[in-house]
Amino acid sequence: MKKILYLALFSFSFGAIAQSNDDLTKHYEAYYKQMKTQGDAQGIINAITHLNVLKPSEARKDTLAYIYLNEGKFNQALNTIGIEQKATDSDMALEVKAVSLKSLGNAEGSYPFFKTIYDKYQNAQVAYELAEINLNMNKLTEAKKYIDLGLANVKDNQGKSFYETQQPYKVPLKSAFYYLDALIKFNENKDTNKTAAVLLLDKALAIEPRFNMALLAKNALSPQEATDTEN
Questions:
Q1: For residues 103-111, average pLDDT
Q2: Eight-class DSSP state of 83
C-alpha cells in the first residue's frame, strides 16, 4: 500500500513539475517577445537564459551568444557556446567565436573560424580579417593571398570600420584592402618597398581621402621615401 502511495505521489509530483515547466516556458516565451518589442537587450538575454535552462537548445544558445556579441560582451558570448571548433557549428556560432576571440586579443585563435566562414562564402570582409591576422603573424604570402581574393570579390557597398580616432569611422572596404596591401608590401622589404607601399596608400586615399590610417601610414613613409630619393 505504501509503495502504491509513494508511486502515486511521485507521479503527481512529476506531472506537477512538467506542468510547471510548460507554464514557465510559455511565460518566458511571452517575456522574450515583449523584450524584443521593447528593444531591451538585457531582457532578451534574461528570457533566453531561462528558456535554455527549461528547454536546452543549441540554436537558442547560439542566439544568446550572438546577442552577447552584439552587446560587446565577448567573454559571456564564448562562455555560452565555448571556443572549440565543431563540425556542427552553425554560421552564427562560427561568427561569434571568430569575432569574440579576435576582439579579446586572440586573433590567432579566431583564425580557424574566419577561415571556415571564408571557405563557405568567399566573403570579402572575411578575407580582410584573414589578411590582417596573417599580416600580424608575419605570414605575408598568406596575407597577400587574401588581399587578392578580397579585391576580386569586394562590393561597393562593403565597408570597414576603424577605431584609432576618438570618433570611429568607416571607409570603403576596397580602400581598406589597398591600405592593408601597402602594409604587406612594406613589410616584405622595408628598405626597397617604401615607394611601392606609398603608391598603394595613394590608391586607398583616392577612394577615401579622409582615411586616417592610410594618411598616417603615408606620412610615416613619405619622408623616408623623399630621403631615399635624394640619396
A1: 96
A2: S
Report residue 66 as a C-alpha cell. 550572438
Q: Is residue 155 part of a domain?
A: yes
pTM for this prediction: 0.83
Q: Please indicate, yes or no, if residue 206 is contained in any of the structural domains.
A: yes
Decide if 51 contacts 32 (C-beta within 8 A).
Answer: yes
C-alpha cell of residue 111 = 583564425
Residue 132 CA to residue 218 CA, distance in Å, equals 18
Per-residue model confidence (pLDDT) at position 230:
42
Please give the DSSP secondary-structure letter assigned to residue 73: -
* Sequence-distant (≥ 6) Cβ neighbours of residue 76 within 8 angstroms: 68
> Which alpha helices (DSSP H) does the chain contain, by range?
2-38, 41-54, 58-70, 74-81, 91-103, 107-121, 124-136, 140-153, 173-188, 194-207, 212-230
Count of structural domains, the chain: 1
Q: Which residues have a Cβ under 8 Å from the Cβ of 185 and sit 6 or more positions away?
A: 193, 196, 197, 200
Query: Does residue 129 carry a pLDDT above 80?
Result: yes
